[in-house]
Amino acid sequence: MAGTWIHARLSSSLNAQELWADMYRSRIARHKAKIVEYEWEVEKCVEIQKSLTAPASYPVLSLPNEIMSEIFVHCLPDPSERSDFYALTTNTKLAPFLLLQVCSKWRRLAIATPMLWTALCLDFETPMHFFEAVILESFLSDFVMRAGSVPMSLDLIGNVEEQEDGQRVLSTLFNHVSPRLERLNLDTDIKYYHLLSFSFPRLRELSLGHGFNYEEDLANLEDHPIQTFRDTPLLQELYLFSGARPSQYTLQWKALSVLRADAFTSQDCVDALLLAPSLTSCTVGEVVSQPNLPNVLHSNMKGFDIYSFGGPYTLFQALAFPNLETLKMHYVDTDNVHVVEFISRFATSLLKLFAADVSLRSLHEMSLLTQLELSSPSTDFVTELLAKLNRTKHPSFLPQLQVVELGDCEPCHLNLALVHALSSRLRGDGVKLRTFRQIWAPRFEGIQVNWEEGIGSSLEKLRLESGMETYVGVPEYDPYRWIRSGL
């Protein structure tokens, strides 16, 4: 009996140990599972922490440097916006200097993009310490270095008189940039630069204005012209404005091909044409006529643009352009006998004519004319012109004509004469007409076009069969399109 009892107790003890062992094995397994779970949570937290503390990632920073540089260049202010244009170089709120402040990568890339540093525009009228000697020297050195070998342009405006040493400022400026300049626009006080002389080996375009000078400052320039720009071997384009005149500057006139000027006298026009025999294009405005002008025969002139002319019309008596191809006349009395004779001198060479009006007699002689644009023609003139354009009846009238645009017209009744004239321009030996536009003055907006029956469909048929552009009525989208095209 005693043996049986001992055996029972031993068996009971072994079973209990196994139960305890199983229990602890189970607890160990559960704790290990929790450890694995916690380790996974720790890894996820570490990843999240790294993503939160890592530098921000922007897709734009992954673009190639070449594309970013191109984008930077398009960030530069539009030169046509005057409010930004003259202050853009030193304005830290605009490109290029704004780009230096975004991040270190953009700064490095902007500094290494030469096209960002080609336009140097300074405004003396803007209060700043920029023109102090040390700052100016450092600024110009950095700017020129960043531009690399790319040609530069300089716009300088305002009165330097308020600066402590205006001549020092201009001397420092030109010493740094004159060898690099391809374009220069200078409208400032002449007494700080008329005694200076520099070499401009790359300069092709020069603009000079006297808007910040008194009459007494300019009085002696006729006898002692400014020599600052006499060393400009590549100069091709010259723009004189705000009272600047040809006799006031010593330039390499014989190389000029383009001249633009305002506020000229007739004598200024003649002087410029005599000084620059290679001119191919000349634009003059607000011309004040003078008597007793010498005759000028200018064989190289291809395009002449004159506007706001005050009579008497003696200038037109003096000028002869035997090879002229494009003539633009604004606010000029084309009925004046001198103007009619002027036009007749090159009628056989003219390709494009833009004017307020012109006589039909003058048009008869223009056998090579391809483009005719007139502003404010009378209704009678338009009627006569359409009759003459009918090639069936007048085969020799403007045989090469391709574009006709009549702007600022009065509304008119449209009849078959228009269709017959345009249709005839698609037949025969002459060049086909590509465009006919009769634009009514904007004040007639709201008036409907008065068509004869079938006119609209006939014009549409012309467009579909020949591609001819035709339009009659108020401006479709731009009231001044014909002005910008040359009138």
Could you please describe the fold and organization of this structure?
- Helix 5 (133-147) runs parallel beside helix 6 and helix 12 crosses helix 13 (416-424).
- The strands form three sheets. This protein has a 14-stranded parallel beta sheet with strand order 1-2-3-4-5-6-7-9-11-12-13-14-16-18. The protein has a two-stranded parallel ribbon with strand order 8-10. It has a two-stranded parallel sheet with strand order 15-17.
- Among the domains are: 62-117, no CATH class; 370-487, no CATH class.
- The termini are far apart.
- The radius of gyration is 39 Å and the shape is flat.
- 35% of the residues lie in helices and 17% in strands.
- The protein has 15 helices and 18 strands.
- It has 487 residues and is an alpha/beta fold.
Question: How are the SSEs ordered, and which strands pair?
Answer:
Elements: H1 2-53, H2 65-74, H3 82-85, H4 104-111, E1 119-123, H5 133-147, E2 152-158, H6 166-177, E3 181-188, E4 205-209, H7 215-218, E5 237-241, E6 258-262, H8 266-275, E7 281-285, E8 296-297, E9 303-307, H9 314-318, E10 319-320, E11 326-330, H10 337-344, E12 352-355, H11 360-364, E13 371-375, H12 379-389, E14 403-409, E15 413-414, H13 416-424, E16 435-440, E17 450-451, H14 455-466, E18 469-473, H15 481-484
Summarize the structure.
By secondary structure, this protein is an alpha/beta fold.
Helix content, binned percent: 25-40%
Please, how many helices?
15
Task: Give the structural class.
Answer: alpha/beta
Gyration radius (Cα, Å) is 39 Å
Sheet with the most strands?
14 strands, parallel
Q: What do the pLDDT scores average to?
A: 82
Distance between the termini: 137 Å
